[in-house]
Fold this protein.
Amino acid sequence: MDVKKIYMDANALLEGHFKLSSGNHSGFYLQSAKVLEEPKTAKLLADALAKQIKESGLEIDTVCAPALGGLIAGFALAQALDVRFIFAERVDGVMNIRRGFEVSKDEKVLMCEDIITTGGSAMEAAAVVESLGGKIVGVAALANRGFCKREHSNVLTKSNCKLPQDIPFFALADFTFEMYHPEACPLCKDGSEAIKPGSRGN
Ligand code: ZN
């Protein structure tokens, strides 16, 4: 399965000259929600991710996603794994599990995101699950930005990866892009202007 082609075809992987939220520039941008716009594509990707997880033999009771980004991927993955789905959400900036969702003691929970960058949000949500007695057994994402090492990939963990190294991380593909400091950006040198993704309605 050519995951990058699926992202490209869905206009979820943009090529151009982008100003990232970090302030750095890049020739690529991932608009993750776009790949989930077609439920058929969401199912295709979630099924492939579920297959990888099942083949690893990992036992899972529940998938938990941090809102908003992880909701669709998490739900689709839970459906493909035939397990329960819950989500965590920020209230006044603090991650929380609400809406009557319960976590039982030692419940095996897989954290799911649409994309893992450093894994910060996933780990904040994971801490809430653990505080309720759950056990985090793994992390999954459709796309990996290349800061954390996933199963079946040679991309090494960078120092800013927040995922624990003692549980598996499953993803379908690594999307590792060059990022440039604005002053050293070759795209700027070529004369184009970096745009902030979202500023043109995307
Ligand atoms: Zn630039």
Residues 38-175 form a domain with the Rossmann fold fold (CATH 3.40.50.2020). The chain has a mean pLDDT of 95. The pocket of zinc ion is lined by residues 17, 25, 182, 185, 187-188, 194 (CB under 6 Å). The first strand starts at residue 13 and ends at 19.
